[in-house]
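FORM 7B: Structural annotation worksheet

SECTION A. Query
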Amino acid sequence: QVQLVESGGGSAQAGGSLRLSCAASGRTFSIDAIAWYRQAPGKERELVASITRDSDTNYADSVKGRFTISRDNAKKPVYLQMNSLKSEDTAVYYCRANLYDGSPPTWGRGTLVTVSS
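SECTION B. Predicted structure
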C-alpha cells in the first residue's frame, strides 16, 4: 500500500506564494505518477498538475505559468509551488498517486489553501 500526506497549506494574500508538499510512504516503488487536485466549496474536484516518474508534467490551463510541480527523485516529496495566487485558487488541495499495477489511485487527506484578495 501507499500512503500520502500533504502539507504546506495555509493562508496567503492574492499575489502571494505557497508551496505544498506531498510525501509518500509504503510501496513507493509502485507509484507511476503523482498529481495534485483541488476542490473548492460547491465545486467538483479538478486536476491541477501532475508529474510522472520520468518527470513529465501536465498543468491545468488555469494554473499554467503560475504553479510548478516538481520532485527531486522518486523517494522525495512532490512539491507544488504556487505563485501569483488568486482568490479562485482557494480550495482543499489533494495529492493522488497512480499505481503501476492498476490498483485504484491513492489519495491524501488534503490541505486547505485560502487566498484572500
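SECTION C. Observations
The mean pLDDT is 95. The longest strand covers residues 18-26.

SECTION D. Sign-off
Analyst initials: ____
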